[in-house]
Amino acid sequence: MAGFLMEAFDQSQKDKVAMASEFADMPALRGKDYGKTKMRYPDYVETKSGLQYKDLRVGSGASPKMGETVVVDWDGYTIGYYGRIFEARNKTKGGSFEGGDKDFYKFVLGSNQVIPAFEEAVASMSLGGVRRIIVPPELGYPDNDFNKSGPRPTTFSGQRALDFVLKNQGLIDKTLLFDIELIKIMPT
């Protein structure tokens, strides 16, 4: 009798494993490995690092050199989380982004003050240009913390939106999108 019960128990466990494996492959999610596989955007240029960019407006001025201070205007969006805005520089984008004009963002090129993707994108821009970049997680915020490297959201709601995406260990894609305008280059 004990052998029969043990065999029935084993069969029950095998049935549960078979049922679980049946649900493990969900065709609706196949190919959507959120935040783990990199999506290729065909109308963007891809660099060796994996950064993808498209110039919305090609600048006509000089390009910055390492060690120079650059002044940029930027917007930030979460691609995998409904394209939510987490920073809307100098634009009113809904009630949660209130206030007048904000100061432009400046940093020293080559100083590691900003995320790697931001630095790489700005280094190859020309003055007056506007570039849209697709930032894979490995070129984004270190340890998924926007307090470690810039650019940082300037509003509470922007900080909350970005933090939600970066800290969520679930199915949220951590790929980001930035629009960057190179406004000024200040020699050192």
TrEMBL record:
Name listed for the protein in its UniProt record: peptidylprolyl isomerase
Residues of the PPIase FKBP-type domain: 67-186
Keywords: Isomerase, Rotamase
Keyword Isomerase part of the UniProt annotation: yes
Enzyme class of the recorded protein, top EC level: isomerase
Gene Ontology MF annotations: peptidyl-prolyl cis-trans isomerase activity
Superkingdom of this protein's organism: Eukaryota
EC number, UniProt record: 5.2.1.8
Reactions listed under catalytic activity: [protein]-peptidylproline (omega=180) = [protein]-peptidylproline (omega=0)
Pfam families listed in its UniProt record: FKBP_C
PANTHER family (alphabetical): PEPTIDYL-PROLYL CIS-TRANS ISOMERASE FKBP19, CHLOROPLASTIC
